[in-house]
Design brief:
Largest sheet: 3 strands, antiparallel
Shape: globular
Number of domains: 2
Structural class: alpha/beta
Oligomer: single chain
Mean pLDDT: 92
Strand content: 5-15%
Helix content: 25-40%
Order of helices and strands: EHEHHEHEEHEEEHEHEHEEHHHEH
Strand order of the largest sheet: 3-6-9
Radius of gyration: 21 Å
Number of helices: 12
Number of strands: 13
CATH architecture of the largest domain: 3-Layer(aba) Sandwich
CATH class of the largest domain: Alpha Beta
């Protein structure tokens, strides 16, 4: 299905590397409302490629927490669908095929550089929001993946980097507006996979969203800067990019991401303490400008209130008032 289909298709894509918290839940609620308010299809996909950080039971817990909050989906790992499987670790063949296409076209190359190699190669300090710019040390160093692999210790394999052209990537975000990045100057050649078969987040999300006909990707604005790179991959693979919408996160009063030091904001923990789903959804809606303080609501009740123009352009803040309201313990 093309992203231009008249029936919108969106996705919820949790990662089983940690428990679902208030910030994740808010982004998923907005994504769900955006699609459901237009009569669209919601796809659930489990993004479990970060193997060392994947925690047993977290995938099942995330699905259970989202259902408890009142969200549902039409396709996913727990129900039938035309684009199975809906778990990334079961879709490796698709990523391998995409990587082979890029390699055959010489759009990617194997890289054996460590972070210290990249740091020492900097002609001047260049630390942006996405880290050090890669100066292309391995662009023409190896004739094959096998040659690059032989240059590394047995416990390491080469990463795959995309060759970035000297051009600007522009798109209009559905919430943040016009975006423009000179990827070559800002990031340089970027890693698309740290796996021989192409199983890496940057490549996998592009392949999967295209294969599953996703027409809208709504997610936290911490991923806004990655979108320019993903658009390059859509173009390289001759795939049509979806509409991107990036919304503000939930942060602590000091502006930092939610962490244990800010209290236990896990949905599972709030459930255990007797906080109702309606109370949580009501708070998430209040943060979005769609509900008064203290309202208890279901996602379905929010469909008639959904209005992206009311969403504040600044992050939602986990204030002491919110913590007291939800009985969040430090």
């Amino acid at each position: 299905m093309s992203p231009e289909s008249s029936i919108p298709r969106g996705r919820l894509a949790p990662s089983p590397t940690g428990a679902l918290h208030l910030g994740n839940a808010r982004s998923f609620l907005i994504a769900w409302l955006s699609i459901r308010s237009r009569g669209g299809t919601v796809v659930m996909r489990m993004e479990d490629l970060d193997h060392p950080k994947v925690k047993p039971g977290t995938a099942e817990q995330a699905l259970d927490d989202l259902r408890w909050l009142g969200l549902d989906w039409d396709e996913g790992p727990d129900c039938e669908g035309p684009h199975e499987p809906y778990v990334q670790s079961q879709r490796i063949d698709s990523y391998r095929d995409a990587l082979c296409r890029l390699a055959d076209a010489r759009m990617v190359y194997p890289c054996t550089c460590s972070r210290s190699d990249v740091e020492s190669a900097q002609s001047a300090p260049h630390l942006g929001e996405d880290g050090l710019r890669y100066p292309g040390l391995c662009r023409d160093r190896y004739s094959s993946f096998a040659e690059a692999n032989a240059a590394l210790p047995e416990d390491r394999i080469p990463a795959w980097r995309y060759r970035v052209a000297d051009e600007h990537v522009r798109f209009v975000d559905g919430f943040c507006g016009p975006q423009d990045q000179h990827v070559h100057g800002a990031i340089g050649d970027f890693v698309i996979a740290r796996h021989e078969d192409g199983a890496g987040y940057m490549l996998a999300v592009v392949v999967d969203d295209a294969a599953m006909g996703i027409s809208e990707v709504l997610r936290g604005d911490d991923l806004l800067s990655t979108t320019h790179r993903q658009i390059l991959l859509y173009r390289a693979l001759e795939l049509e990019a979806p509409r991107f919408v990036h919304v503000p996160l939930v942060v602590s009063p000091d502006g930092r991401r939610l962490a244990k030091r800010h209290g236990d904001t896990r949905i599972a923990a709030l459930r255990e303490h007797g906080i109702s789903a309606g109370k949580i959804v009501g708070l998430l809606a209040h943060w979005c400008g769609w509900a008064e303080w203290g309202e208890s609501l279901t996602p379905s009740e929010l469909l008639v209130r959904f209005d992206m123009t009311k969403l504040p352009p600044t992050p939602a803040i986990l204030t002491d008032r919110v913590k007291a309201y939800l009985q969040i313990r430090d």
